[in-house]
Amino acid sequence: MILNDLEPLLRLLGRLPGLGPRSARRLALELIQNKEALMRPLAQSLLDTADAVRECSACGNLDTEDPCRICLSPSRLGEDGRAVLCVVETVSDLWALERSGSFKGRYHVLGGTLSALDGRGPDQLRVGSLLERVRRGEAREVVLALSATVDGQTTAHYLAERLRELGAEVSAVAQGVPVGGSLEYLDDGTLLAAMNARRSV
Questions:
Q1: Span 150-178, mean pLDDT?
Q2: Would you place residue 160 in the very low, low, confident or very high pLDDT band (cuts 50, 70, 90)?
Q3: For position 1, what pLDDT does the model report?
Q4: Which helix or strand (DSSP H or E) is residue 172 part of?
Q5: Same domain, 107 and 158
């Protein structure tokens, strides 16, 4: 029988992606049985991270600095002082592309995709700030690296139209991204092939 005092911990762990009730119980037991080696350092690390990490006001990435280190890096700009701007749905997608080493420009995190069913329109995403960055001349090209889902492709089509109205060069990741796939689950080689084979839209 599980102690009632553990229920809040189990509920919180069960809300983490990929963890159901049974996985949460196993994880809680492992933490409790290793309080000094795991539980206390993890608790302190979570507190430190919660205090230190913030959202980048420019791109939406997570970092301890604002703007983030990617936005501050001059190596991410071309000779003309402008960047290739890669639009992704989530920070997980940004991290996946960074891990692959397939992209050397700057990013813009939308915070999701357009979805009429979920009531998510352009105003619920970081679309306005993306368009403003392009208006200011920050990007010489915008790469749409969105998931090959219905919502992802609807969002890509919407953004391509709006960006072209501003005179931006727009491309999209191509081969390697499977239909229905999400960027954060793809391997590095697939991400590299997709980025290198981007096409105009």
A1: 88
A2: very high
A3: 46
A4: strand 170-172
A5: yes
Confidence band, pLDDT 50/70/90 cuts, at residue 179: low
Check residue 3 and give its pLDDT.
Answer: 64
The DSSP secondary structure of 1-31, one letter per residue, reads ---GGGHHHHHHHHTSTT--HHHHHHHHHHH
Q: What secondary structure does DSSP assign to 94-143, as a single string?
A: HHHHHHHT---SEEEE-SS--BTTTTB-GGGTTHHHHHHHHHTT-EEEEE
Distances 109 to 30, 130, 198 between C-alpha atoms, Å: 35, 9, 18
Cα(103)–Cα(199) distance, rounded to whole angstroms?
Answer: 15
Choosing from 15, 33, 52, the residue where a domain stops is 52
Three-state SS at 199: strand
Q: What is the DSSP letter of 148?
A: S
CA gap 7, 16 in Å, rounded: 15
